[in-house]
Design brief:
Helix content: over 70%
Number of strands: 0
Number of helices: 1
Shape: rod-shaped
Radius of gyration: 34 Å
Distance between the termini: 111 Å
Oligomer: single chain
Length: 80
């Protein structure tokens, strides 16, 4: 009967060790996740800034196209 208790005690010790190891791993994973969330927020901010710059550039393009069309219209009218 004593060997049964010793085996049970060993299994309890293993379970306790595994529990501690999993808790440490869980803590590490939570910290890693928090770091990735912060990194993701930074990337989202950069993406929003880039999108704003692209939108600003796109707004300038129609003005340039309109000026080019006005310059080309007299040439097209002469050709008719």
């Amino acid at each position: 009967m004593i060997p049964d208790f010793q085996e049970l005690s060993d299994k309890i010790d293993q379970l306790a060790e595994m529990t501690h190891a999993l808790r440490r791993e869980n803590t590490e994973l939570r910290q890693g996740n928090a770091a990735l969330v912060i990194e993701n927020l930074g990337y989202r901010r950069q993406l929003a800034e880039a999108a704003s710059r692209v939108e600003a550039l796109l707004e300038k393009i129609p003005a340039l196209d309109g000026a080019a069309e006005e310059e080309q219209q007299p040439e097209n009218e002469d050709a008719r």
